[in-house]
Specification:
Layout (H helix, E strand, L loop, with lengths): L1 E3 L11 H30 L3 E8 L2 E8 L15 E2 L4 H14 L48 H10 L9 E2 L3 H15 L3 H12 L5 E2 L13 E2 L5 E2 L7 H5 L2 E2 L1 H11 L7 H9 L3 E5 L2 E3 L4 E4 L4 H7 L2 H5 L2 E2 L1 E7 L5 E9 L2 E8 L4 E7 L5 H14 L6
Antiparallel strand pairs: 1-3, 2-3, 2-17, 4-9, 5-13, 6-9, 7-8, 10-11, 10-14, 11-12, 12-15, 15-16, 16-17
Helix pairs in contact: 1-11, 2-4, 2-8, 4-5, 9-11
Length: about 375
């Protein structure tokens, strides 16, 4: 375990020995909880490696267990690259709100404003924010198998017929957020990968995050294992980069979480963009659907988190209640997102008002419920979930 702590102000040195003793005891308790719970989950689901990062008001702790590859026995570190799956969507949403903050697009404008090819189609008249809230009208989780290239993709979007009116139902989907990423990059007049890797990632201070892992970083790229424990890696499809194609380590992701909590300094336009992703647009039970982020009023019950991150929410269409006007970013909330590919599973969560955040990355796709329980147990040690 590695622990990084910010400097204490001189005034806090009064009674410093007592504070140090309390901090050491608290740290030891947290360390034991993380060790015990993480190893229990790894054993239960036969997970080769796991990296956990925790931020408590700017104090960072990193916990790394197991191996990045059973074949090489390379140890997991906070720089080990994991496939993020749908956690990637958070960065796509941030790119869109960053373009908006820079005056390059507006999330309330229709899609055909930015893609004239869709003029006259049903999809073209849908406002952009529906693409980032899964409420465009009933997209499937994945593109149909027959879609293999951009031309086929655009033909699919032109011909697409919604099952519902926009803003009435939530259908968790990759095509819609992928389209938002395509439009955001187009508004910035650069390819999507360029917008992310050469503009957004550096602006966030991320130095170990990629859509295409460079040759000199392949040794840090963890091997994923599927539910049958076979070695697998991402098999990208159309708009994969935009929807689920990012690779990163726990240290970079914790920096992203801290930026969302205002603990990391970024440029004003990007800070606005981060806040805009946490605008609430729709309610689904206890969950408020932000722009990709999902949030719950604190104190949140574990059962509500488990339900909000369940397969039912991922695979079944749910009716929504529109928030009009949209809900401004909140402080007293639990905000989270799961992500997975065939061989990886991850979870990020934070509480802005408590300045608490967590990142959990593993090189196996294991159940969301286990990830949520693990995060809740760890943050509960830091007082996340009391009245």
């Amino acid at each position: 375990m590695q622990w990084t702590r910010t400097c204490l102000a001189p005034a806090l040195l009064i009674g410093g020995s007592l504070l140090a003793s309390a901090a050491a005891a608290s740290s030891e308790t947290l360390d034991k909880t993380v060790e015990q719970q993480a190893r229990s989950v790894m054993q239960q689901y036969n997970i080769a490696g796991m990296s956990i990062a925790v931020s408590d008001n700017g104090q960072q702790r990193f916990y790394n267990y197991g191996v990045a590859s059973r074949e090489t026995q390379e140890k997991v570190t906070d720089s080990t690259l994991f496939e993020l799956g749908s956690i990637s969507k958070l960065f796509t949403a941030t790119l869109a709100t960053w373009a908006q903050a820079n005056g390059q697009l507006s999330l309330t404008e229709n899609i055909d404003t930015y893609l004239p090819q869709l003029y006259g189609s049903r999809l073209g008249k849908v406002p952009l924010f529906h693409l980032g809230t899964h409420t465009a009208g009933g997209f499937p989780l994945q593109f149909p198998d027959a879609i293999h290239d951009n031309q086929q993709m655009m033909s699919y979007f032109k011909a697409w017929q919604p099952e519902y009116l926009p803003g009435v139902h939530r259908s968790y989907a990759n095509p819609s957020i992928g389209l938002l990423g395509l439009i955001a990059a187009k508004s910035m007049k650069v390819p999507f990968k360029t917008a992310m890797q050469e503009q957004l990632f550096p602006a966030l201070g991320l130095s170990n995050s990629y859509l295409d892992v460079p040759a000199n970083k392949t040794s840090s790229y963890a091997q994923g294992y599927n539910k049958q424990d076979a070695a697998v890696r991402l098999n990208p499809g159309v708009l994969a980069a935009e929807a689920y194609g990012m690779k990163s380590g726990s240290r970079d992701l914790l920096r992203f979480v801290e930026a969302n909590m205002g603990l990391t300094e970024v440029a004003p336009a990007l800070q606005r963009a981060l806040a805009d992703t946490r605008t609430g647009y729709f309610k689904v039970g206890a969950m408020t659907q932000d722009l990709i982020w999902e949030q719950y009023q604190a104190p949140v019950k574990l059962d509500a988190l488990i339900e909000g991150n369940s397969n039912r929410m991922a695979y079944e269409t749910q009716p929504v209640q529109a928030l009009n006007p949209p809900l401004a970013p909140q402080q007293d909330v639990w905000i989270n997102k799961t992500g997975a590919t065939n061989g990886f599973g991850g979870y990020v969560a934070f509480m802005p008002g408590r300045k608490l955040g967590i990142v959990i990355l593993a090189n196996k796709n294991y159940p969301n419920e286990a990830r949520v329980r693990l995060a809740h147990q760890i943050l509960n040690e830091l007082g996340c979930c009391t009245q």
